[in-house]
Amino acid sequence: MPPNPKVLLIIPAFNESESIGPLLIALREQGLTALVVNDGSTDETAEVCAAAGADLITLPCNLGIGGAVQTGYKYAYAHGYDIAIQFDGDGQHRAEFVPALIEPLLSGRADLSIGSRYIEKEGFQSTLLRRAGIRYFSGLIRLISGQTVTDPTSGFRAVNRSIMAMFAAQYPTDYPEPESIVHVLRLGGRIVEVPVLMSERVGGRSSIRSLRSVYYMIKVSLAILIDALRRSGAKSL
Length: 237
Hints:
This protein has eight helices and seven strands; from the N terminus they run βαβαβαβαβαβααβα. It is an alpha/beta fold. The protein is about 40% helix and about 15% strand. It has one domain (about 5-230): Spore Coat Polysaccharide Biosynthesis Protein SpsA, Chain A (Alpha-Beta Complex). Strands 3-2-1-4-6-5-7 form a seven-stranded mixed sheet, with helices on both faces. InterPro entries: Glyco_trans_2-like, Glycosyltransferase_2, Nucleotide-diphossugar_trans. Keywords: Transferase. Pfam families: Glycos_transf_2.
């Protein structure tokens, strides 16, 4: 890692016009560089980002969270960034925790650093249904890999260039966080969690609702199991 690494925040955004403007202003005031990937929004997200002076990629159609984030990773890798941070555009993630999040990468202790709200269990803890799903995926990942990840669905994550290259080339499409964790661990990547506080979303709607949460559980579980069963002949990190 160079002494002054280039750090990019990747903000996937779908119909986040209510929250993303103040967020971008706050990030700029803290000296953080952000790229918004506008995932085919039908509201004023693009206009709000442009007014805030943000770097912006607008996708011609909605690709979902996986496609939007992968677009950001492709951009970060192609433009020579050393660290890429996934950061939600709905106001849940808090920029003051960015230094703590990237410290394991800077010190060489981790390839992927995850901001977890369940280490110190402070701040917004999500809904009861989401917490049940998080505990389920945490147990599944521990069963498969032997490593405990307390907040496997956290979208507040930082990666070094090795993982950036991997995610730029291949990234899960739907609800990618738990599946990508298993993939990193299978290839020998080091994952560290750091305690963070999160807030309730400022506006917009979560993509995981009602019956869609059942689809989420089934699809991601199958994807994790398939990835874990793949031969380890893939190139290690």
